[in-house]
Structures are given as structure tokens and as C-alpha cells.
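Dear support,

I submitted the protein below through the web form. The confirmation email said the job was done, but the results page showed an empty box. After a refresh the structure appeared. I'm attaching both so you can tell me whether what I see now is the final result or a partial one.
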Amino acid sequence: MFTGIVEHLAEIVDIKKTKNNLDITLSCELTSEFKIDQSVSHNGICLTVVNISNKSYTVTAIEETINKTTIKNWKVGDIINLERAMKIGDRLDGHMIQGHVDQVGKCINVDEKKGSWEFIIEHKKSNNITVEKGSIAINGVSLTVIDSKVTQFKVAIIPYTFDNTSFKTLNKGDVVNLEFDILGKYLAKMALNFK
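What the results page shows now:
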């Protein structure tokens, strides 16, 4: 489980295809604190550390992950949001995130608002829902929905979040990983079962 509060940014330094998998090597200052078999959120995707070497580490994405997330579009030099799993007893500053991407969305507009940024994200119609003032994870960042529609929503980004996450590199037309609020997913499933 994660909270959507990005701890650090990592840079992709190598990507290798091994059978149907991708082995992705990243570099960041947190590497010395990682251990083999540790789960780390990478742009909202829970991936396991499989190798550590100096200031870089490697994670493996299997075919299921490649097909359902933006990981297939990653390239060397990309900057990725990182968060280690939450610890019992710590504050839950964001919201509960599993690191299991529900679907991919697309940034259809970025608007600078003199001290903040608004991003409009579009997604395919599905059972996944957003609600006004509800939670959403975009590339692993816990955010509040400010304009909820059936296939799109808007979020506002404060300067700290913009400067310390990959939102500073997110442009109109870019695809993002979306994890909808777990409570909303359970309620939507219950509503479908009672029809």
C-alpha cells in the first residue's frame, strides 16, 4: 500500500527486453535504502526491486503490467515518481493507493494559473469513477478531483507538487497511469451486483 506522496524522482538509465518482460534500471538517491524484493511505486505502478548496483537498481515489468500501464512508453532519460510502501503507524498524508493501475488516461490540457497548474485528464468510459473532491492517483501522485465528469476530470497542482514530481514534465497529449479511489471501486462493484 502507498499514500501517493512522492518521496523522490528517479531517472531511467536502461531498459532491456527479456522474453515478454521489461527490465528497467533506474538511478536515484534512495537506491542505498532499497533492498531486493522491496515493493516500490513507480509512477503509480507497484514494481519489485530485483537488483541493486551502486546508485542504480532494476525492476521487472511482466506482460500484464506492460499491457495495462504507460510503462511500454517509458524510455531512457524519463523521470519517474517514486514512493516506498507505507509503514504502519505513519501518517497517511495522501490516500490509500495499491499501486495497481486501473487504466491509462491522457492529459488533454495544461493551464498555468499564476501560482498553480490545472491538468485535465481524459479516460475511457468504464466502471471507474471520480467524484468532486474525491481522490485520484495520477502517476502515483495522490490528488483531489476538482471537476468530475464521466470520462474526464481536472486536478490542481500546487508549486511544491509541480516542482517535486514528474508533473513538471507532463504535457498535453501525454499518457498517465490512473488508479481510482479504492472505496469508489468497491461501491461501483456493489452497485453493479445489485442491478
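Response: this is the final, complete result; the empty box was a page-load delay. The chain has two domains: 8-84, 103-193.
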